[in-house]
UniProtKB/TrEMBL annotation:
It is an enzyme of class 5 (isomerase). It comes from Dichotomicrobium thermohalophilum. This is N5-carboxyaminoimidazole ribonucleotide mutase. It catalyses: 5-carboxyamino-1-(5-phospho-D-ribosyl)imidazole + H(+) = 5-amino-1-(5-phospho-D-ribosyl)imidazole-4-carboxylate. Belongs to the AIR carboxylase family. Class I subfamily. The keyword Isomerase applies. One of its GO terms (molecular function) is 5-(carboxyamino)imidazole ribonucleotide mutase activity. Keywords: Isomerase, Purine biosynthesis.
Length: 192
């Protein structure tokens, strides 16, 4: 049995741990992270988990961290500045409300940053979307849809970026897309 399976089982089936981002060590040889998933707070994990789930489907190694642009600016600086040297190739950043995390991350790293607006209670994520999408020229953030669909597509876009230089991953992506297409019915049916 793989050494990590008991921990994984515990995380998946323990209601407290299932709601928390898995902490993936940066120095693990078996799964050196090439994608970073960062979020502004613990509550954002409910949305950002969708990006992790998509990356898991393609066996893309990733790390997850809570990095608040407002409450932990030094942590954000350290994370963004060290990302490329640590082997990351893409960063997925999700935040709600003022949602400055994706933009500030993009300002501090040359890596592609994919921004996910997390749905907020006050404005249903519209505030998050506008905070992420309205970047000044020269600081690029690839902005996705609000909420879980955006997080899923951020994971998919990260896979597509990585697949440009990874033939094996590109083949998995082609197979995944073909299967999704095959799963769509050609004619409607009655739901009786």
């Amino acid at each position: 049995m793989h050494a990590g399976l008991p921990v994984l089982y515990f995380r998946l089936f323990n209601p407290v741990w299932a709601s928390q981002p898995p902490h993936r060590e940066l120095d693990e040889d078996v799964s050196q992270a090439i994608v970073g998933i960062i979020m502004g707070s613990q509550s954002d994990w409910a949305t950002m988990r969708a990006a992790a789930n998509l990356l898991d489907q393609f066996a893309v190694p990733y790390e997850t961290r809570i990095v608040s642009a407002h409450r932990t600016p030094n942590r954000l600086y350290d994370y963004a500045q060290s990302a490329r040297d640590r082997g990351l190739k893409v960063i997925i950043a999700g935040a709600g409300g003022a949602a400055h995390l994706p933009g500030m991350t993009a300002a501090m790293t040359p890596l592609p940053v994919l921004g996910v607006p997390v749905k907020s209670a006050a404005l249903s994520g519209q505030d998050s979307l506008l905070s992420i999408v309205q970047m000044p020229a020269g600081v690029a953030v690839g902005t996705l849809a609000i909420g879980e669909a955006g997080a899923t597509n951020a994971g998919l876009l990260a896979v597509q970026i990585l697949a440009v230089e990874d033939g094996e991953l590109a083949a998995k992506l082609d197979e995944w897309r073909a299967q999704r297409s095959a799963d769509v019915a050609q004619t409607p049916t009655d739901d009786d």
